[in-house]
Amino acid sequence: MRGVPWWGVISSAAAPVLLIGGWTVAAGLQPRFDPVADTVSALAAIGATDRWVMNLVFLLVGACYILTALALRPARTAGRLILIAGAAAGMMVAANPEHTGGFGSVPHFVWASIGLAGVTLWPAWACRRGPDVPWGLRPGPAAAAVAVQFALLVWFGAELILAAGQAGLAERAVGAVQATWPLAVVLSCRLSTRPAQEPVTALR
Predict the structure, then answer these.
(1) What's residue 47's pLDDT?
(2) CB 167, CB 38: distance < 8 Å
(3) What's the CA gap between 181 and 120, in Å, rounded?
(4) How far is CA 190 from CA 26, 105, 193, in A?
(5) Which of 92, 99, 111 is nearest to 44 (CA)?
(6) How many CB atoms lie within 10 A of CB 202?
(7) Which of 27, 107, 112, 157 is the one with CA 20 to 30 A from 169?
């Protein structure tokens, strides 16, 4: 089975660092921002302070996802394409910001929904069967990853609909898991393709 190149490890590791670090920096630049109640999109909304920071994060994280998908050669092509599509949609969020104070941008909502769906569902189409398949690409772990991310998405959607005051926390939980899972898959692929130690030949 083909392995994952070194640059795939870098891109997959960079995604969660850029995402979590980026929204932390962007939130610190806002004069009034509640990370528990306010969404990440509010950091890039029209009228937000230094909104370019979060927009740049959207673009960089999307690029990392795309590079990771290209590097995940052991995965099925369908899953890799879905991850690329989700990443591209996430990058389009930067070009379609919402307005300060909430939604108000239909394109923003559409692109954000497509991006979240793609980055959530790609493991289901990337998995393979067989004894030599890395654990991150096996059906069981892939299904568990999708289930956890979907449950977090339901929580996030419920927070938005009910205005329960924890939409920001729910969105950050979704984003952190979504950004971390590709790294886990890449590491499982790298570990499974390490060259086995050659057996010692007995002396005659």
Answers:
(1) 87
(2) yes
(3) 10
(4) 33, 41, 5
(5) 99
(6) 5
(7) 107
Tell me the two tokens of residue 30: 């806002």
Centre a 10 Å sphere on the Cβ of residue 198 and count the other Cβ atoms it contains: 6
Q: For the segment 180-191, what is each residue's pLDDT rounded down to a tens digit? A: 999 999 999 999
DSSP of 7-49: HHHHHHHHHHHHHHHHHHHHHHHSSS--TTTS-GGGGGSBT-T
How far apart CA 18 and CA 57 sit, in angstroms, is: 7
69-92: buried (b, 16+ CB within 10 Å) or exposed (e) per residue?
bebbebbbeebbebbbbbbbbbbb
- The pTM of this model reads 0.89
What CA–CA distance (Å, rounded) separates 34 from 43? 11
CA-CA distance, 148 to 70, in Å (whole number)? 24
By C-alpha distance, which of 142, 152, 146 is closest to 185?
A: 142
| 29's tokens | 């630049």
